[in-house]
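Give me structure tokens for this 447-residue protein.
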Amino acid sequence: MTLVTERRREIAPRPHHPLRAEVVRGFGPWAGAAVLLTVAVALGANADQWQGGWAETREQLHVAAGLLGVPLALAAGCWHGGREGRRRTEELLASAARGPLARLLASGLPLVLWVVGGYTAAAVLSLLATWYRATGDSPYLVAFLTDTVVLASAVVGGQVVGRMVAWRLAAPLLAVAGYVVIGVLSYGSGNNSYAPLSPVVGGMTDSVPVWWQPLAMAAWAGGLAGAAVLAYAARRRAFALLPLAAAIAAGTLLVQTGEDGLWHTGPLARRQVCHTSTTPQICVNARFEKLLPQVTDALSGLTGRLEGVRNLPVRFEDRAGRPARDEVELPMLAPIGWSVVRGELTDPQQYAWEAGMMLTGRSDCDRPDPRWDPVDNAVEHYLAPSPQEKFFDEQDATSGPADRARLKARLDARTRLETMGERKRRAWLSEYFATTDRCDAKGMPTL
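Here you go.
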């Protein structure tokens, strides 16, 4: 009999960990799948605006996690926490050996794992999509880790609310309330002193947080959740004052510092990479380093026609703020979704025309002398004509006498510039670019 008993013990299945049923079955997998689908669909709907840019991907993930993920996590935690109340098993579970804190953690932690896992899966998919089309820079993993802490805190907080309010509508109402609170905190970012407390607000796309901002945000969210858990389930509820004090201290620090102090332009966004063999040189922001060959190729026709011409800016620059005196601004590469989509220039011809307008446009003149119009238009046509030039010419040709006269002057000026000898044209263009800052006709080169 002893041998038979020992044999049975050997083949008997090992007892499962108490948390296994919560992790494998039940509400957790559904909550994780809901978070994954919600965040993935929200990101996929506007993939043109972030795919290829690491900073843009971070921003979109951060907004999706805060604005959609947090209300969903609150609702999931609340629904799961109210399970015992809906089943009317509170008294039965109260007689169990485990205390209320242990029961809450045993029920809530698996749900936290699933919600965080769903967000992690969505984040990995978005990072892979950006890696495939990356234009430069590198991933911002600290923001992702901060978002997971905020989501986990929302699940735990919702779990406490669900145990206190065993009402079926509590979960959706808590999600709506969370969405409204986040919206109010985030509204008027820049003028709202409480905006730094929002899990959505995250500075400009080219900004990075000060080193302690993620820690303070984690302490703010985690402290509130921890205080709620201890106040509800701890034997000595006074312990809840410790995480509450940490949350208040972190929140106060965030509010007093303000958005301007929490975020600053990243070191990469302050640098440029340049192609120096053209005139002008072509520089792009270091965040878009891999776009430099495309930009150089798109502007190759323009820079080729300017070879040997004097009085030009030294370079096209791509930094925040006004260009230096000897520089001209490069047409915008950011925000992604306009000139650049999925790591590619959407319309090189349009981009070249915009660059030409940066060189020839008299942007500081409210009303430049009308005599500049045919001259400027001729240079614009020669360097990089607008993709819409033919359309506007045809429109002027069928309009009133004034538009037709203006079109004739433009066409004549274009013809004279194109039929000039190469040396004479270079000399004329050198004269022209010495006058691009003038609004009156003084010094206008004869064409």
